[in-house]
Structures are given as C-alpha cells and as structure tokens.
Amino acid sequence: MTKQRLANLLRWRPERRHGSFDTGEPPLRAELFGLEQFSSFGAALAAAHDLDPASPSSECLLPRLTENAAIIRHSYDLIAAAARAGQALAPDAEWLLDNYYLIAEQIDIARQHLPKGYSRELPRLRSGPLRGFPRIYDLALELVSHTDGCVDADNITHFIKAYQRVQSLKLGELWAIPIMLRLTLLENLRRVAYRIVWRRQHRELALKWARRFIAVAQKDPRLFVTELADFVRANPPMSPPFIAELYANIEGIHSVIGLAINWIEQELSQQGQSIELIQQAESQSQAADQISIGNTITSLRTLNAIDWRQFVENLSVTEAVLRRDPAGVYAQMDFRTRDHYRHVVEGLAKTTKQAEESVAETAVRLAIARRDHSLADRRELHVGYFLIDRGAPELQRAVGFRIPLSRRLRRRLCRRPVVLYLGAISALTLLMATPFCWLCQALRPGQWPWLALAAVLILLSVSRSAVALINWVITLGLSPRRLARLDFSKGVPENHRTAVVIPTLLYSENNLHSLLERIEICYLANREPNLCFGLLLDFPDAAQAELPHEAALLAAAVTGIRQLNTEYAAEQTNPFFLLFRKREWNPAEQTWMGHERKRGKLEMFNRLVCEGASDAWPVLEGDLEMIRSIKYVITLDADTQLPPQAAVKLAGTLAHPLNRPRLNPQTLCVEQGYGILQPRISASLIGSQRSWFARLFAGESGLDPYTREVSNVYHDLCGLSAFVGKGIYDVQAFHAALGKRFPHNRILSHDLIEGAHARCGFVNDVELIEDPPATYLDDTRRHHRWVRGDWQIASWLWPTVPSANGQQPNRLGGLARWMIGDNLRRSLVPAAMLAALLFGWVVLPTEAWRWTATLLAIYFLPNLARTLRALCSKAQHAAWTAHLKRALANETRAWTIDVFELMMLPFQAGLYLDAIGLVAWRLHVSRRKLLEWKTAAETARAIDSRLWTMWTTLGIAPLTALGTAAILLSAGTTGWLLHAPLLLLWLSAPAIAWITSWPWSSPPAPLTAPQKLFLRNMARRTWAYFERFGGAEDNWLPPDNFQEEPQARLATRTSPTNMGLGLISALAAYDFGYLSSGELVERLGHTLN
Questions:
Q1: Beta strands at 760-770 and 640-641: parallel, antiparallel or unpaired
Q2: Quick one: which of 333, 407, 709, 795 could link to 337 by a disulfide (CB 3.0–4.6 Å)?
Q3: Residue 801 lies in a domain
Q4: Is the bond leading into 1046 cis (omega within 30 degrees of zero)?
C-alpha cells in the first residue's frame, strides 16, 4: 500500500453527504451479550450458517491483515508526531500510543500463524455478508461485536459450546480460533484508529478556524463578516468533532463571534440537530471509542494468557469421542500424543469427506469389538492401535479410505523398507562408481587383478557418499516417527517405578565425589516419588582381588549414599542406592576384574530385580524391596546428564501400551513394542566449548555424535533404532531377551546387539547430554575402541552365532545385520579411500588428476547437496541476508569437518586397520584382552596433547605424504604437483590436530578507566530503577516499565520475569556496594514475604 493510498484513507472529507460524514467503517459494536445470551445466540447462528462445499478460489484474510497493519501504523505515526509536538491527546489516542508495541507484536504473530493458503483449508460460508469467508472468522466477528472487544475464555467457551450443540466445528477450526480472534481484534483496532485520526484532524481544522475567528474579532470586529463568508465558502465538515471543538474554543470569547455560532446553529437546525446535541453525541462517541480500544488491547493480552491446548481439548467433539477408549489409555496420555491421534482422525476425515467425530467413532467401535475376542495382545483394545499402529489399515477400510495411487505405490515399496533402503544404497553406489570404469580403461588387458582391486576400493570409497545421500533424502521425505507416551507429569505411578543407574568404575576419591554429585543432580532435576537413583560399582582391573586402599574408598561410597538418603528423607524414603561387586579372576584377560564389565553389572542388576538374586552384590546400600519393584531402568554413563523431566518422559513413553515389549517365546526376542528406548544424545554447552576440536565436532546442541551420519533414519523408516548404551529399558523384557544369550569374554560393544534383540526405538523429543571429547587424540582412542567392538560382533552377520551355550541360530533381522555390517563398512572406508587415491596416482598416472577430481567430487557431494538446499530453504518471514549468513555459518562448519577428516585420512586408515588387526589377533590367535576398555575419564586423563606427542601419534599422515611424493618423483612424473594440496594437508595433520586440541578460551578484554566508569554509571542507573520503583509503595515488586516520553507514566504491573530480575538486581547491588548486607536481607525479605 502506497503512502498516497494511506493519505487518502485517513484524509478528512470536506464535503457533506446528506448530513453524514465519512468516518470509515464503524467499530465492531452490537448488542452486548452475557453468557446466557451467548448460549442462545450461538445455537441460532449455527442454525443460520450455510457452508459451501466447494473449495475456495482466493485468499481473503491476508490482504485485509496487510491493510489493517498499514492503517494502524500510519495512525500511530500521526499520533506520535502530535505527542512529540506537545499537543494534547485524547484518551483513546493515548491507548494507541502507549500500547502500539503490543499491537505490532500481535500483528507479527498473526502473520506467522496465518501462512498463505491457511484460511482456504477452513470451511467457508456460502451466503450472507461474509460469503466466502471462513465460518470461524464469522464467529470471531460476532464474538468481538457482542462484547465490544472484551473477549475472555469464558465468553469464548460459552459461545463455541452453544454453536456446537447444532453444528460441530472441525479440529482445524478450533485451532484457528486464536488467530481469527487476533485478526478480528486487529480489524476493530483499525476501525477505531481510523476514527481517532479522523476525529483529530477535524478538531485540528476546527481549532484553525477558531484561531482565525478570534484573531479577526479582537483585531477588527468589522471584518468578521468577511471571515465568516470565507468560512462558508470553505464548506468545512460540520462533523461532531469539528463543531464540538470549534464551539468550545469560540463560545463567549467575543460578541461578534456570535454571528458564526448563529450560522452554525441555523445549519444544524435544518438537520434537526443542535450544538448541545452534537456535543453530547461527540462525548459519547469518544467515550465509546475509548472503551472499545481499551477492551480490544486488553483482549489481545488475554489471548496470550489463555491455554489454547486445554481450550481445544475441552471443546473438541473428536476429543470427547476418543476419550471413550475401551482400554482407558487415551485419557492417560500426554497432550502431544492425544494431539497426534486427533490429527490422524482429521486427516482421514478430510480425505473421506466424513465428519471427524464419525471417524473417531469408527476407531472406538473397532477397539470395543476386540473385547469379544480372546486377544493375545491387549494393545488392540486401545483406540491408538487402529490410528497409528498395525490396525490402521483396518480403520482405513472401515471409513472407506481410498488410498491414492502414489501412496499405494509408496506403501508397497515400504512394505520391505530394508530391501528398499539397501537397494537404493547399492544402486547409488554403483552409479557413483561408473566414472571410474571409464578411467580404468587405461589399464592393460592383463592387469585384471589391478581392476578387481580398484573395484573393491572404489565401491568402499563411494559408499560413504551414497549412504549419506540416501539417509539425507529419507530424512527429507519422511516425517519423524513419534512414539506414543503416557502423561507422567504428575508423578510416575508405583507400578512403573524407574531406576536411574550409572554402571561405572570406582577408582579414586575425586571420582567418587563426582559420581555422588552426578546422581544427586539427576535426582534434583527429576524429583519423583517413584524414581530412584543408584550406582553400580566395581573396582578397576588389578593384579590381585583387593588393594589396600579400596576398603576405605568403598566405605566412603556407602557413607555418601547414606548421607544423600538422610538429606532428602523428608521428600522421599531412600531414593538412592549403591550396589558393589567384587573382582573375579578372568583367565582370558589374565587379570582380576568385574565380570563382563558394564554389561555384567547391568546383567547382575537385572537378575537382582527379576529374580531377587543378591549374591552377586556383596555390598548393597539402599532399600532392597524398592529395588525389586523396579519396572524400568535408565542407564547412563558417568559423564551423562539427565535433564529435567527426561526420566519422566522416557518412563511414560515405554509405559504406553503400543510401546510395551512383547516377547516371542521361541526366539526370546522382542517382536512388538520396544524393550529399549534410545533418546537423543546431545553435546553439552560447556563441554562443546572446551577446545576448537570440541566446538567443531559437537556442533549445535541436539546433534547426535553417535549417529551423526544417519540421524534417526532407521527409526523413521523401519521403526527401529541403534542403541548406544544410554537409554531406558524394560527390565523384565531385557533380562528375558539377553540374560543368558551372549558368550563370555567376547563382546566389548554390546549396545548394538542388545538393542537388536530387545528391539530398540528412538525417542526424538527427549535428550540426554554429555561432554564431547576435548582433543583429537581423545576422540581417536574412543573410535579405536568402537571399531574393536564392532569387529568383535561381526559373527552376528552369519546364520549361526556364538552364545553362552555354544552355537545358536542367529535371531537378528535384516536391519540389525545391516547396522552391524554398516559399522564394519565405515571402519574400512578411510583405508579404502586412501588406497584408491594412491592407486590412481601410481597405477594410472595418465588419468591421475581426473581420478582424484572424481573421487573428491563424490566425497564432497553430500555436503554440496545439503549446502545448496540450506541456502535455498529460507523461512517465510526471515530476511535473505540473515538467512544466508546463518546458513553459510552452519555449512562452513560441515565443510570444515569434511576437510579435517580428509586431512586425517592416512591416520584414520591406520587407526582403524590397527583396531581390526588387533581384533583378528585376539579373537583367533591369543584369545585375550577382548574386553580391554577404559572409562572416558581415564582415557582423557592419560592423553598427552603436546605437539611432540601429536607428531609421534599421527606421524603416519606426514610419512604417507612424504612417501607418496618420493614415489611420484622417482617415477619421473610431474603429477605430484597436482596432488600437492592433498599431500600438504597430510603433512600438516599433526600440527592442525594439535592446534584444534588447544583449550579454547576467550579471555575478557581489559577495560580502560573510561569504560569502567561508564559501566559503573550504567550499573548505578540500572539499580536506581529498582531502588526507586520497587519499594514499599509498589509492594516491593518491580513494575513492568516506566515511560519517560511523551508523558511520565509507571506501568504498575509485574511478572515472574520482573520479580526474578528484581531479586538478582538486589544481589548485584550488594556486590557493587549499593546496598549493605542488612538492607539486602530486609529488601529480599519484603519481596519474598
């Protein structure tokens, strides 16, 4: 909208139109209704509404919102200019001036919540003044009109309930009520703002004529007749504000001015009006506008305070039907899950053209019908079984859902997701390998062994990019799979008691204090009566069963647990426990150690819970009966943080009937539901800032370092996920599936195959937090251990596998075997890619540059695709500059990681081959040290990150660079110059690794004396606000704000944020010396009393 158009809209019209004036559209005012009147009016309106079944052809609300925002803004600018000029403002204008920040905020919210095309999805009226507008918009208009803009939860609820007694509103319409009310209130504001400016302009014109009349009357009364003639010729608008203002300024000033008053009275008498009636009407109109704008602005604030989730659930007809769930589970679920169910109903209703409540009734009826059957699986009694689980096809047939051809094709393809997934990876891998077939034509016919070697190396190398691209495409095409959850926010039930355990080693007093502090923090963040917290401990490996200092260390651990139980006894009886087991002699490892390390501790703990076997734990501090009543176990590492409500959400998810594990009695594997749930693992904010390396690889909070390459593709595609050792499990199902399954002294990385047998799911909205490795060497030690663990379970790819009782049939499915094989593939990729590069340089010197360029292009291809999409995918309301800046920052980090990994390629190849060789030797020759392992803390302490250590550890990278350059030079070719950038990268690898492993810190810049003085002055002025306005007159509570211009005014309201800021400010004032200790105690006492 142009400025000229705005000026035209807000300009007063000088011409009279049959005694009326163009004051714009009138405010939304009608007969005021009470709650009882709304009940009858709502039903009558529902009976009168006639809906249009045809799809709308145009967008009607967004253009009006844009116009309303422009007019309100222009009105505000005019009023603000008047205020700055020192002109007096009417009360309604002051409302607009003081609250424009709120109005602008509501306009932004309306734009965000009203995307283009949103209103077209809503049912529309076929007839009436608002024909073509959404029905819910008409309801909002009527509600605002019959309350004079005073909208609250009560009158909205009464009105909608009355309407739904005749016609049910769709779920989307209920969710649209907040945005429609915002639009309607903004519409009302636009109309009142227009009248405010119109009235003000007419008053200013009247004031101009009054000054002319007075000036002429006082200077030369004989000329007044001429002035009056000019007034009549000017034909000013005889509007109420003009007449009222003119009369108020000229009445009684001079006798000659009476001529003007007489003329005005004569003009008004011809219309049946008088000055007195005009003044009275103008006063009433201005008062009405003041009430309307006050009510409207207050209602905009009220909309922010209403709990719309509860509002929708209370009024949803679909919600009422689903609550008749015969299993009685629906009402116990959390809001997110209930909302998911309702949206499934909404989608089916929209596709089948049925009422939403009819679809919900069908789902409930199918669940009720299962009562007459002898069900092996009671989950079929739950309505969710037919909405989001295996019963969904049955519901779709019952409601007449005709699957579109595209979806039918996709469903058929997805019936075997593993085959589809692996087929796509294989096809893309072969496609990426095609260019190398052309390059290998330079080989002579007799060099087929070189061709076979090249094929293996290339297929392994390009598989990295093929897997990454397929995973990326799947995450773009599939919505995250949500797991249903029960609502345990008011407390975990006793029959779902959950233990949070940390199985770890006890090796020093500092380590013990850290462990006690960790479980105490976990408790404080998740205080629940039926959550308990324990340490599962044993001592590190040793040459003898007991060491002299260990008895005192164990006694200190027991004392620490007792102290914690005593400290929190008022809140919960013995929430903490400690279990300790002794070392055993392990002939295979030739050392005294805890049986099967972490896996053994959890296995023995599960035996204690399930079988009551406490013989494995000679030291047991805590409530044994409570431990035996545990249903779920959350296992954490010693450095893992459990955020608030994480334990409750995990327990509620695993407790949902659709997620409860169902064990196959023949295979002893979980075949339905989940025995384990894996939450998201995020890098801690503090840990990710410890070094440049940590900042680079930790990424944004919420990224999973274990599955960074694949995200949660497995769960979204197949409903299964990889377990990484930190999550929640059903202790009975876990023990039944895994208790006696695996051989001794064989499995180091047990998490993956445990999750495969007990069926692991992914919880994408719950996260655990841990510190990422701070140095590159720390990270490489961890990867070395992971690769050893992956290759030690490689036997689980075959038809028969080792077990505690000899060879047994392999019970793992295709996806689980792929996850094991994929880990093996990834450990071979660095060596394959390094060998592929050297192969092209040495064996195919004439095609070396093409070979290298092709290999590197494929290496960087996934990042290139992600970068292009990130640059082009701008949020709707984001500015392009801000979007590009943010996208480039994120993608630069991803590219840096790729370059860093390319630089470390020779070292990674050697590291992984060393791990693979160790496994081969230990598994097939020595049969010792297969369980070699250290905690993350022990590994980090043993790391020496000095430059010399980096050079000796990562020396293979520069040696590879120098050796390759020597070979190329000895061959007499100049090709090494083309590969010099890559060789230089490998040559600098130790130095770069050393630099990135430096502790990262940002020391504060020293302040100059003027800067200190400035900050001290600002601090004192800041405290002056709380000192002046947060005293006894304000009940010791800080007000929201103090307006200095254009008129001093204190906003006498507060909020939790204001109160918290006031308390912290008082503490800071004490630190700066502005308050004494006594004054601080007095002030805080008054505030908190």
A1: antiparallel
A2: 333
A3: no
A4: yes
Q: Can you tell me the mean pLDDT for 861-886? A: 86
Q: Which residues pair with 622 in a beta bridge?
A: none
Inform me whether the pLDDT recorded for 189 exceeds 90: yes
Residues 639 and 758 in one domain: yes
662 and 748 co-located in one domain = yes
Contacts with 592 (C-beta within 8 Å, 6 or more apart), sequence order:
541, 542, 543, 544, 545, 583, 584, 585, 586
pLDDT band for 959, please (50, 70, 90 cuts).
Answer: very high
Q: Rounded CA gap, 787 and 794, in Å? A: 11
Query: Can you spell out the DSSP letters for 1028-1052?
Result: HHSSGGGTT---SEEE-SSS-EEE-
757 within 8 A of 737, measured Cβ to Cβ: yes
The range of the structural domain enclosing residue 1038 comes to: 1009-1088
Looking at 139, 165, 198, which one is the last position of a domain? 198
Count how many domains the chain has. 6
- CA Rg value for the chain: 38
Q: Which two tokens stand for residue 790?
A: 């992956």
pLDDT score of 17 = 33
Asked which of 303, 335, 355 is the last residue of a domain, the reply is: 303
Q: What is the tens place of the pLDDT at every residue in 1075-1087?
A: 888 888 888 888 8
β-bridge mates for residue 542, sequence order: 592
Q: Does some domain include residue 225?
A: yes
Rounded Cα–Cα distance for residues 945 and 960 (Å) = 22
Asked whether the beta carbons of 767 and 646 are under 8 A apart, the reply is yes
Considering the domain architecture, whether residues 991 and 1014 belong to the same structural domain is answered as: no
Tell me what the mean pLDDT of segment 883-891 comes to. 85
Q: How far is CA 713 from CA 340, 481, 518, 721, 890, in A?
A: 20, 10, 32, 8, 21
Say if 791 falls within a structural domain. no
Among candidates 728, 732, 721, which has minimal Cα distance to 755? 721
Q: What sign results for the dihedral spanned by CA atoms 858, 863, 864, 869?
A: positive
pLDDT at residue 4 is higher than 70: no
Please report, rounded to a whole number, the percentage of residues in the chain having pLDDT higher than 90: 57
453 in the same domain as 344: no
Are 981 and 1022 part of one and the same domain? no
DSSP per position, 348-375: HHHHHT--HHHHHHHHHHHHHHGGGS--
Tokens encoding 417: 């997701």
Residues 298, 154: one domain?
no
412 pLDDT higher than 80: no
Half-sphere exposure of 310 (CA within 13 A, CB side): 4
